[in-house]
Amino acid sequence: MPHVVCAYGEVGHEALAELLDLGADVGLVVTHEDAPGEKIWFHSVAALARSAGLPVVTPDDINTDDSVATIAAVKPDFLFSFYYRLMMKTRVLALPSRGALNLHGSCLPRYRGRAPVNWVLVNGESETGITLHEMDEKPDHGAIVAQRRIAIARDDTALSLTRKLAAESRLLLREVYPKLIDGTAPRMPQDHTRSSYFGGRKPADGEIDWTRPAESIRNLVRAVTDPWPGACTTLDGRKVLVWWAETRPATRSGAAPGTVVADDRGGDALLVATGEGLIEIASIAWDGGEAVAGTTWARAAGLAPGARFATQTKKD
Description:
Elements: E1 3-7, H1 9-21, E2 26-30, H2 45-51, E3 56-57, H3 65-74, E4 78-82, H4 90-93, E5 99-104, E6 112-113, H5 116-122, E7 127-134, E8 144-151, H6 158-182, E9 197-198, H7 214-224, E10 231-235, E11 238-248, E12 260-261, E13 271-273, E14 278-286, E15 292-293, H8 294-301
Parallel strand pairs: 1-2, 1-4, 2-3, 4-5, 6-9
Antiparallel strand pairs: 5-7, 7-8, 10-11, 11-14, 12-13, 13-14, 14-15
Helix pairs in contact: 1-6, 5-7
């Protein structure tokens, strides 16, 4: 019997590609139209599916009568969700005869919910993973079918970590797909007492709170750097985007958080005091401008020690 694959983004593309390489019978691909204004850096699921001669649909809501009828007509044995962005209700999840399975970018039960690749970086985690699990109406709640752990390097960004997840998703499917077909794949209940949940990230979540430790600010920057919208702050009322930053050993600068301080190494690095330690801004831009080295930007902006970036005051 054929499968229905709901997929989007880089992980979705690679997971679908792996199923096709494994000879899976994919009867329908459900994906999204690219959102206006979104930076599309990832490979297209729709293009891959069409190149393989597969039917593709892009419903605004997968739970409507029309969408349910379209999926039901395929008579799927499995429904796979590979980074598909819409939540599915029970009547969709009940359509496949052998189950509905989701690929989630964390080691469940930790980091359920939205944007796990960003949240693990924001929180300074050293490890994450990719999990295939049964779907129900609660986010990332069902029994685990397979899981692979992934080390997070200090210089990983959301982009590099997403690419690691995409590569690991192929390895995971290569291992577990034959077991799904022959009925030997495990179903391991999650320990819900160990679960954590994170919601979708909002633009305000990218605002730098200079009262935080330098390491925490660095983690925020790498979690939302290009192709994500970037970490932001303000200088004299103008929005500034910080694209890369590095910590400096803690010093007693005496400066208030957000204050530009002199380079204690005798150079002209753009150093900013934080709630704990100093941070060197390596790549920065005015909102709408091109990213440049921190030293270059500071000279062009006429920035001198004592200038102060605004601290975060409110989240939406």
